[in-house]
């Protein structure tokens, strides 16, 4: 099989290109795609530990710590003491962080609309279902291999 026909290669390439497009569009706001993912998850629900945040964004804790550090320096998030566990902090989105997130949401939606041009709603719905099933299958095999 040629690499260009490999589903793994095609998925990875498509994801990278969409990521590049988002990064270009977010650049004028001084925020990366990775930072926006963390910011957006915090906008959905904040005052959570970095460990919980890492699970919610599906990244390792070290990367999330680095991203939170960057967002904190920009004034978009803040760490607060965790009264239930003094060894950890709760990550909270600031008002400025919410404002930036609110500006970026329609940009992300526009980028996604652009890359889905000329694809029917039925195909998009089916594509989401297929991607979710691929993710579920991959997770199952990862767990089996970690045993």
Automatic annotation (TrEMBL):
<dbReference type="GO" id="GO:0003700">
    <property type="term" value="F:DNA-binding transcription factor activity"/>
</dbReference>
<keyword id="KW-0805">Transcription regulation</keyword>
<keyword id="KW-0238">DNA-binding</keyword>
<dbReference type="Pfam" id="PF01047">
    <property type="entry name" value="MarR"/>
</dbReference>
<dbReference type="GO" id="GO:0003677">
    <property type="term" value="F:DNA binding"/>
</dbReference>
<dbReference type="InterPro" id="IPR036390">
    <property type="entry name" value="WH_DNA-bd_sf"/>
</dbReference>
<dbReference type="InterPro" id="IPR023187">
    <property type="entry name" value="Tscrpt_reg_MarR-type_CS"/>
</dbReference>
<keyword id="KW-0804">Transcription</keyword>
<feature type="domain" description="HTH marR-type">
    <location>
        <begin position="4"/>
        <end position="136"/>
    </location>
</feature>
<dbReference type="InterPro" id="IPR036388">
    <property type="entry name" value="WH-like_DNA-bd_sf"/>
</dbReference>
<dbReference type="InterPro" id="IPR000835">
    <property type="entry name" value="HTH_MarR-typ"/>
</dbReference>
<protein>
    <submittedName>
        <fullName>DNA-binding transcriptional regulator, MarR family</fullName>
    </submittedName>
</protein>
């Amino acid at each position: 099989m040629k690499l260009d026909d490999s589903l793994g290669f095609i998925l990875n390439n498509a994801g990278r290109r969409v990521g590049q497009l988002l990064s270009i569009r977010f650049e004028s706001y001084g925020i990366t795609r990775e930072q926006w993912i963390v910011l957006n998850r915090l906008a959905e629900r904040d005052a959570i530990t970095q460990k919980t945040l890492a699970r919610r964004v599906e990244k390792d804790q070290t990367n999330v710590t680095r991203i939170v550090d960057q967002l904190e320096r920009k004034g978009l998030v803040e760490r607060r003491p965790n009264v239930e566990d003094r060894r950890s902090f709760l990550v909270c989105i600031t008002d400025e962080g919410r404002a930036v997130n609110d500006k970026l949401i329609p940009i992300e939606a526009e980028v996604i609309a652009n890359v889905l041009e000329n694809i029917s709603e039925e195909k998009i719905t089916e594509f989401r279902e297929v991607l979710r099933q691929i993710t579920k299958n991959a997770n199952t095999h990862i767990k089996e291999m970690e045993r």
